[in-house]
């Protein structure tokens, strides 16, 4: 008998409401080929389990406890967890979302989880940066009802500067993905002076124009809650001084994208 493939996961969250429609179980796969300056999940970067120290309050005292981030699971073990939430999925038209990190970096593991979830009739969603081989995108697409697809920076040099990697493969995959049957939503992080410049927003609109019938765009304002995580991981954080993204600015950007999709939201 074949040994089942195991994948590295750093969190499994029930009752997520911002990772696709309805109430979702979000499974966070560990490892990402990008290094977005604003990433709020730096514990997802590394493709191996790692350790950090977590502060825990007990009455008057705070104690520091070491914690391992990342655990190997089989797809069956993940799906066993996911099916427990089927009653909530049924009530809310929810389902499972694979997030990360970059879930397509563990494409075979992702495929098996999605395939087994579909066998239970569960709605499936993949939250991806699009930085993956086309073979990996094509592999998971038949068992993915919805892709939440990030678009960050239209200019390739800026993309390299702020994410550490090229955007060409991301745009190429997006242009091919529009012909497959999975639904597609675009997600745009709003980071002041980086992704929200008029040039970048116009550049992103030009890409989105090539996706006729796009159902939804989510604008995701930058928030500061990840700072503590960078400290715990001893990683430099280039946006230490960056404030939370102003919501009035996000609302204005929303207006400017209103004709680009059936629905445009701030916050997802
Ligand atoms: S693609 Fe996502 S998980 Fe990876 S670094 Fe960027 S924001 Fe973080």
Written overview of the protein:
- It is a single chain.
- The protein is an alpha/beta fold and 268 residues long.
- The chain has a single domain, classed as Aldolase class I (TIM Barrel), CATH 3.20.20.70.
- 31% of the residues lie in helices and 27% in strands.
- It contains nine helices and eleven strands.
- α1 packs parallel to α3 and α3 runs parallel beside α4 (134-140).
- The radius of gyration is 19 Å and the shape is globular.
- Iron/sulfur cluster (SF4) binds at residues 32, 34-36, 39, 41, 44, 100-102, 129.
- Iron/sulfur cluster binds at residues 32, 34-36, 39, 41, 44, 100-102, 129.
Strand and helix layout:
Elements: E1 6-16, E2 24-29, E3 50-58, E4 61-69, E5 71-74, H1 75-83, H2 86-92, E6 95-99, H3 107-119, E7 123-128, H4 134-140, E8 146-150, H5 156-163, H6 168-177, E9 183-190, H7 198-208, E10 216-221, H8 227-233, H9 247-256, E11 263-266
Parallel strand pairs: 2-6, 6-7, 7-8, 8-9, 9-10, 10-11
Antiparallel strand pairs: 1-2, 1-5, 3-4
Helix pairs in contact: 1-3, 3-4
This protein binds iron/sulfur cluster (SF4).
Descriptors:
single chain; 9-stranded mixed β-sheet; two-stranded antiparallel sheet; TIM Barrel; 268 residues; 9 helices
CATH topology: TIM Barrel
CATH class type = Alpha Beta
Radius of gyration: 19 Å
What structural class results from the helix and strand content?
A: alpha/beta
- How many individual β-strands? 11
The second-level CATH architecture is: Alpha-Beta Barrel
